[in-house]
């Protein structure tokens, strides 16, 4: 095969990959734009700052928004420290043997378990056995277990991407193992860790099955006042008004979906900002 044929073949494959990428991006933007068109007419200060009224056929979604924020905040508190520390141990301290390979394989397999299974586990263990009841605590712990495999895997891959020469140079200068990890390895791996964490948090914010058994309620007039309180949550609220409320206004359904999308986008933007800041700091 001559040079010209190789060049033509490369251009063809480049075009195919670009076309497929364009289709995926077009679908994503199409969904986002469609939600904005359908839901923007409902989006108002009253809609996001008031309680549901008339059997959730009118009013706003403030309890669902706050419940989602509380739930995601609790999930971040429980999952990210455990996931990142687990990844540090597996990549930096654990011996490279059959046991660690089995642990990694188990983590990957757990990531593929359907979310409804995590919900049933949370119901049986956190709600019933530990007697947390349906609460923000039980829901946060259940979602933490759900996203933990993704956090561990993405964090470990980010740590693996840091060249070993950085570790060797730090140790040669007299730094301890932990100082090398915290001062050299983690700053280099932070952008990748943040990316995986943002994806995980976005998934947690949109899950319905696990919270159905552990925290979500049909409707409530008061806001959660402790970690043992039940809560309205946006994904479950959207499911309720779309399937369980007769003659529910369609614009409220689209408005709720748009708010959920915007909430996830806010998490992604904040994560991107932290990632950009860490890269600038790394360059300096």
Describe what you observe in this structure.
The mean pLDDT is 87. The protein has a single domain, classed as MetI-like (MetI-like fold, Orthogonal Bundle), CATH 1.10.3720.10. β1 (52-53) and β2 form a beta hairpin. By secondary structure, it is mostly helical. The chain has a two-stranded antiparallel sheet with strand order 1-2. The chain is globular. The protein has eleven helices and two strands; from the N terminus they run ααββααααααααα. The relative contact order is 0.15. α1 packs across α11, α5 (115-129) packs across α6 and α10 (234-243) runs antiparallel to α11 (250-283). The protein has helices at residues 3-39, 45-49, 62-93, 98-111, 115-129, 136-160, 164-172, 177-206, 209-214, 234-243, 250-283; strands at 52-53, 58-59.
Based on the model shown, name its key terms:
mainly alpha; MetI-like fold; two-stranded antiparallel ribbon; 2 strands; about 0% strand; globular
State the end-to-end CA separation.
47 Å
Task: Tell me the strand percentage band.
Answer: under 5%
Mean pLDDT: 87
Uncertain segments of ≥5 residues (pLDDT<50)?
Answer: none
What structural class do helix, strand and pairing data support?
mainly alpha
Q: Work out the helicity level.
A: over 70%
Largest sheet: 2 strands, antiparallel
How many domain modules? Answer: 1
Please name the fourth-level CATH homologous superfamily. Answer: MetI-like
Q: What CATH architecture do you see?
A: Orthogonal Bundle
Number of strands: 2
- CATH class value: Mainly Alpha
Short description:
This protein is mainly α and 284 residues long. Helix content is 76%, strand content 1%. It has helices at residues 3-39, 45-49, 62-93, 98-111, 115-129, 136-160, 164-172, 177-206, 209-214, 234-243, 250-283, and strands spanning 52-53, 58-59.
């Amino acid at each position: 095969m001559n040079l010209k044929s190789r060049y033509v073949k490369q251009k063809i494959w480049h075009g195919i990959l670009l076309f497929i990428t364009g289709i995926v991006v077009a679908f994503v933007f199409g969904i986002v734009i469609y939600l904005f068109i359908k839901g923007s007419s409902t989006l108002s200060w009253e809609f996001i700052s008031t309680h549901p009224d008339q059997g959730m056929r009118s009013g706003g979604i403030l309890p669902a928004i706050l419940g989602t924020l509380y739930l995601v905040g609790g999930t971040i508190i429980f999952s990210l420290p455990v996931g990142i520390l687990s990844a540090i141990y597996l990549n930096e301290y654990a011996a490279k043997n059959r046991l660690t390979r089995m642990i990694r394989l188990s983590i990957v397999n757990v990531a593929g378990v359907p979310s409804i299974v995590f919900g049933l586990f949370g119901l049986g263990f956190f709600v019933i056995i530990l007697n947390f009841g349906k609460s923000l605590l039980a829901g946060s712990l259940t979602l933490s277990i759900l996203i933990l495999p993704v956090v561990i895997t993405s964090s470990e891959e980010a740590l693996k991407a840091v060249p070993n020469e950085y570790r060797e140079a730090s140790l040669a200068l007299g730094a301890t193992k932990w100082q090398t990890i915290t001062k050299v390895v983690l700053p280099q791996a932070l952008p990748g860790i943040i990316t995986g964490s943002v994806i995980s948090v976005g998934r947690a914010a949109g899950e319905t099955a696990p919270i159905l058994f552990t925290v979500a309620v049909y409707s409530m007039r008061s806001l959660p006042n402790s970690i043992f309180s039940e809560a309205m949550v946006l994904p479950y609220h959207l499911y309720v008004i779309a399937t369980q409320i007769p003659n529910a206004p369609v614009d409220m359904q689209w408005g709720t979906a748009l708010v959920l999308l915007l909430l996830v986008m806010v998490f992604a933007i904040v994560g991107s900002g932290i990632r950009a800041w860490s890269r600038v700091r790394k360059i300096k």
